[in-house]
Amino acid sequence: MLDVLLSLLEIFYNLLLCILIGWFSFFLFSKLTKNIDELKEIKENNCAVALILAATLLSVAMIIKQASFPMISIFQTIIEKGISFGGLIKILGISLSAILISMAISVIAIWLAIQIFIRLTKEIDEWNEIKKNNTAIAIILAALILIVGILMGQGIESLLDSIVPGPILEKIKVM
Fold first, then answer.
1. In angstroms, rounded to a whole number, what is the distance separating the alpha carbons of residues 154 and 82?
2. pLDDT at 11 over 90
3. pLDDT > 90: percent of the chain
4. Which residues contact 118 (CB under 8 A, 6 or more apart)?
5. What is the per-residue pLDDT across 30-67, written as a single tens digit (0 to 9) for each?
6. 125 and 82 Cβ atoms separated by less than 8 Å
7. How many CA atoms lie within 13 A of 92 on its CB side?
8. 145 and 118 Cβ atoms separated by less than 8 Å
9. Distance in angstroms (rounded) separating the CA atoms of residues 130 and 46
10. pLDDT band at 119, cuts 50/70/90?
11. pTM of the model
12. How far apart are CA 68 and CA 91, in angstroms?
């Protein structure tokens, strides 16, 4: 029965993460790209903007996936060992903080990678081209965004391991 409860908790946790990733990533990325009104562009069927946003959401999700595995392990260990309601709330707060930090770092890293790329390719005004629905430019930037997501996940996981306290486990006896 405990396994079913833990599985349902994990499903609920991941569903909340999906919603949080979608909203937070969109919100923060739209604040960082002040020269594009993403909602207006998407309503006008600008596929280039949609591609950049989709790549950003996927990239952040890949990074958060790496960061959320330790949190799920901590939940499972603590629930199996027993914990007070206050302790569970504290762990949930730490976990939520870690995820929000991970999301912020990932969106800022994506934005920074794009800014560096734009500075290196001075002969193209990428944001202007994306506003004009240039999907070729959007595909290149989307690939860059996905590369950031692939490569940043492990670093975020290591960072969280160093700042988020994990459960103290008993020593394993080998027979």
1. 30
2. no
3. 22
4. 126, 127
5. 877 778 888 888 899 999 999 998 998 898 888 887 77
6. no
7. 14
8. no
9. 8
10. very high
11. 0.76
12. 13
Give the type of residue at 27.
Answer: F
Cα distance between residue 109 and residue 127, in whole Å: 18
Q: What is the separation, in whole angstroms, between the first and last Cα of the chain?
A: 29
Orientation of helix 135-163 relative to helix 85-120, angle to 10°: 140
Q: Could you state, in order of their start, the residue ranges of all structural domains in the chain?
A: 2-163
- pLDDT confidence tier of residue 174, bands split at 50, 70 and 90: low
User: pLDDT tens-digit profile of 62-75?
Assistant: 888 777 766 677 76
| Amino acid (1-letter code) at residue 106 | S
Smallest Cα–Cα separation from 53: which of 64, 62, 41, 65?
41
Nearest of 39, 143, 141, 158 to residue 105 by alpha carbon: 158
SS3 89: helix
Decide if 68 contacts 10 (C-beta within 8 A).
no
Tokens matching residue 116: 């560096």
